[in-house]
Design goal:
Blueprint lengths: L2 E7 L13 H6 L8 E8 L7 E13 L5 E16 L2 E13 L9 E11 L4 E10 L7 E9 L2
Antiparallel strand pairs: 1-2, 2-3, 3-4, 4-5, 5-6, 6-7, 7-8
Amino acid sequence: MPICLTYRLEVPAAKRHHYSINRSQWLAGLNCRPGASEVIYLYSWDVGKTGLEPAGLIEADKAVDHIGHPYVQMAQTLEAKYTWMKRTKTFVEWVAFYPTGAVAPDTLPQYYIHPGITYFVSNNIQLDAHLFIGLNKPATDFFGGPGLSIRF
């Protein structure tokens, strides 16, 4: 069972955007855009030669609600991938976002179904297309798009 734990923190670096921050803001990460600091636990299984690959993740992101209150955005996904041909996979994923500690009354949990397809151009290049479909009122109705991944 492959597992992975990742951490990401983005800090402003462009000259055209000047940020003035103090030490406590830096340590708290308050200078970052919402969602820029995250911890992700990824897991997946390869079910023999069936082509089926269940997977998921648990994620914690730093976020700020629309009234300026910081909170932790928890996410949980459960996914099933299926390999149709050596280079082509489809997937369907259930996605949930839980705003933990948000105080804005309209910052509520969101649920999505997320189907898509991936095509491996080579071992290092992947093309994909996906669509998120909102399952409850706070969720966006739908969004998606194409993707390109390059491994260096």
